[in-house]
Amino acid sequence: MPMATRTTTRRTPGFRCAECGWTTAKWVGRCGECQAWGTVSETGAPTAARTTAATAVTPAQRIGEVDLTRAAARPTGVAEFDRVLGGGLVPGGVVLVAGEPGVGKSTLLLDVAARAARSGSEVLYISGEESAAQVRTRAERISAMADTLYLAAETDLATVLGHVEARSPGLLVVDSVQTIASADVEGQAGNVSQVREVTGSLIAAAKSRGVAVLLVGHVTKDGSIAGPRLLEHLVDVVIQFEGDRHSGLRLVRAVKNRFGPTDEVGCFELTDSGITGLADPSGLFLSTRDHAVPGTCVTVTLEGRRPLVAEVQALVATSTLPSPRRTSSGLDASRLAMIIAVLDKRAGAPVASRDIFAATVGGVRITEPAADLAIVCAVASSVVDKPLAPDVVAFGEVGLAGEVRRVTGLDRRLAEAARLGFRHALVPAGSLTGTVVPAGLRAVEVADVPRAIEAMGRLAGGRSTSAAAVGTV
């Protein structure tokens, strides 16, 4: 029999925040943890505790004797979602899916729930934000109807756990964790204490019953997941849903994954009829033209381990303002300003007094430095008003000294460029050592920005785009 466990606690007067549970020895008007006003009240705060040992109910096992089937992933039927999860959902695993309102979280998870139900598993969908009728309307619109998909519009934690006990589902979807509240915890739904209690209870139910759980999480204004940081530590997988409201492209990436890698990215397209996976999304980020246009250059970015071909566009125009405009869309504004300064100082390009606009095609956002060289080529092409050859890609990081630095994943970038029919690639000098260049693709090494501009001119079929020519425009 397990030995008795005795815990002794000495309590002294103190003050506690009703929102997050933060404690202090004296009263304050504003909580020092969650910064809420008027939530600190007097209570007895535990100051010391001692717990004695107890006999373990389940003895420790040798690591080689642990049953691996309990952690085997089951595919959801959505290939792009399974790619991010590491193969699928694990029984007893808890997945937190976070993203901005309207990005498509509920649509994707309803599709996953319907596919799981059609495969023979009972699925319970808890909606804390919408009625069951609203959820059914969306399910009919995206063709996510299934006989074993059960809906319940609940916001009480005890009732949700009662539904789980009554149905014993194989998959539980909670939309969202910030709308569920426990009557045993002070504060309204969504505060730190409530989110901690709700998440802990759902995790306990998932582990004890072997139920895979998908939790929808809200985000704050700065894009971080709402609620305590402990929430991300408690769950097994944290997935970030990203996308621009003005574009149908959605990117799903795993920030944390106990069952698989965190360097995979899933691509989806959100339409009126639902959300669909994109196995080959590179074509979305290229413009469709029948002739070459100055100020454009194609690059290959890496989203996790996935190469994506994207097009960078730049427009350099005469400025009538004392302070020329620098406008970017889909690119880091500070990085664009740095590249403009490098072009002005290292290549002698007359860009300091001109308006410069830079953007990406298709609403994709490029943040990695490997796109620096493509921005350089696009701006230089717009300065001289000469188009770059349409079969050229460029990738490399540009430093303040004008040097072109090496980038990671060069082999994957070259393979993707060759697969899409590109014939020339501008790459950093010295990066081809040990790299296999695909057949039909010629890689040209450039050491700095002036040499990159000269190589760009040669590939365009002339010498008009040399560094000297750019500086004299």
From TrEMBL:
Annotated ATP binding lies at 99-106
- Origin superkingdom: Bacteria
What keywords are annotated for this sequence in UniProt?
ATP-binding, DNA damage, DNA repair, DNA-binding, Hydrolase, Metal-binding, Nucleotide-binding, Stress response, Zinc, Zinc-finger
Q: Identify the residues that the record assigns to the RecA family profile domain, covering every copy.
A: 70-219
User: What InterPro entries does its record include?
Assistant: AAA+_ATPase, DNA_repair_RadA, Lon_proteolytic, P-loop_NTPase, RecA_ATP-bd, Ribosomal_Su5_D2-typ_SF, Ribsml_uS5_D2-typ_fold_subgr, Rubredoxin_2
Pfam families cross-referenced by the UniProt entry: AAA_25, Lon_C, Zn_ribbon_LapB
Example GO CC term: the record gives: cytosol
> What GO biological process term is on the record, naming one?
recombinational repair
Where along the sequence does the record place the motif called RadA KNRFG motif?
A: 256-260
The UniProt annotation puts the region (Lon-protease-like) at 355-473
A molecular function (GO) term: ATP binding
Domain commentary:
The middle region has homology to RecA with ATPase motifs including the RadA KNRFG motif, while the C-terminus is homologous to Lon protease.
Instruction: Provide the family line.
Output: Belongs to the RecA family. RadA subfamily.
Q: What does this protein do?
A: DNA-dependent ATPase involved in processing of recombination intermediates, plays a role in repairing DNA breaks. Stimulates the branch migration of RecA-mediated strand transfer reactions, allowing the 3' invading strand to extend heteroduplex DNA faster. Binds ssDNA in the presence of ADP but not other nucleotides, has ATPase activity that is stimulated by ssDNA and various branched DNA structures, but inhibited by SSB. Does not have RecA's homology-searching function.
User: What's this protein's name?
Assistant: DNA repair protein RadA
Q: Which gene encodes it?
A: radA
